[in-house]
Amino acid sequence: MVDSPERSAPYPSKVAYMAQKRGVISKERTERQLAREQRREFEEELAAHYEQEVGKPRDRRRLIFIGVLVLVALLAGGYIVLTLLPAPATAPTPGIAVGQPAPDFTLPVYGGRGGPTVNLKALRGHPVVINFWSESCDPCRREVPLLQRTYEQYGAQGAFVLLGINQADPKEDIASFGRAFKVTYPLLFDAGGSVNAAYHVTAIPTTYFIDRQGIVRAVAITELNEQTLRQGLADIGVKLP
């Protein structure tokens, strides 16, 4: 059966339309594919650039993440500092390590007895206890009676030398503190804090026990009680009955 001219006329137009439509679709697909290839080439060039500059390949997602962080920081008007450092295996220990020589010093006496100055090296041959304290430190105030009592019973008889070092209070307060607590061992003033720094004092009270050769044998970074004081003295050769 032969179609009439009226029915056959639209067919070529439909074929042409479908051909044109397929061409448009093919063109769109080609453009998208080209865009993907261009983006892939750009990412590969970027990764190659970082590999060449830094010496190791970079993860693309990591780069995008860092870029977002930087953008957020800039928009917020702040700064983001990322420091990639290995964590220390152990936290730094305050104070001088046991077995190390005690740093020498010469300080004026502002309270207690003795003076006008004390030089640590001149005390070589005697066990020495150095107590770093402050008038406003409650644990320091609580341990003073124990220190004074032990010093009166044994230190004043030549068993050991006890020194209190203060860097935080005016010298007048050091003197009045000594009178209030009836301290008879020397209270020294570390005006510039150089002795505290040399002994790495990061908290008070801190007490050093130094043997006759001037070597640190024990450190107490806490309030002393009778047990810790006896143990520290025993470490420097002072045996209390």
Count of DSSP strands: 7
Average predicted confidence as pLDDT: 78
User: Structural class, from secondary structure content?
Assistant: alpha/beta
Largest sheet, in brief, is: 7 strands, mixed
Output the strand order for the largest sheet: 2-1-5-4-3-6-7
> Which sequence of SSEs, written as H and E, runs from N to C?
HHHEEEHEHEHEEH
Rg over CA atoms, rounded to whole Å, is 40 Å
CATH architecture of the largest domain: 3-Layer(aba) Sandwich
| Low-pLDDT residue intervals, each spanning 5 or more residues | 1-11, 54-58, 70-92
Q: What is the helical fraction, as a range of percent?
A: 40-55%
The rough form would be described as elongated
The CATH class of the largest domain? Alpha Beta
- Looking at CATH, which topology of the largest domain would you report? Glutaredoxin
By DSSP (H or I, 4+ residues per run), the number of helices equals: 7
Tell me the domain tally: 2
The end-to-end distance, rounded to whole angstroms, is: 133 Å
Description:
Residues 25-52 form a coiled coil. This is Alkyl hydroperoxide reductase. Pfam families: AhpC-TSA (PF00578). The chain crosses the membrane at residues 63-85. It comes from Thermogemmatispora argillosa. This protein has 241 residues and is of the alpha/beta class. The protein folds into 2 domains: 12-76; 106-235, Glutaredoxin. The chain is 44% helix and 14% strand. A 7-stranded mixed beta sheet has the order 2-1-5-4-3-6-7. The chain is elongated, with a radius of gyration of 40 Å.
Summarize the structure.
By secondary structure, this protein is an alpha/beta fold. The protein has helices spanning about 5-10, 10-55, 60-75, 140-155, 170-180, 195-200, 225-235; strands at about 105-110, 115-120, 130, 160-165, 185-190, 205-210, 215-220.
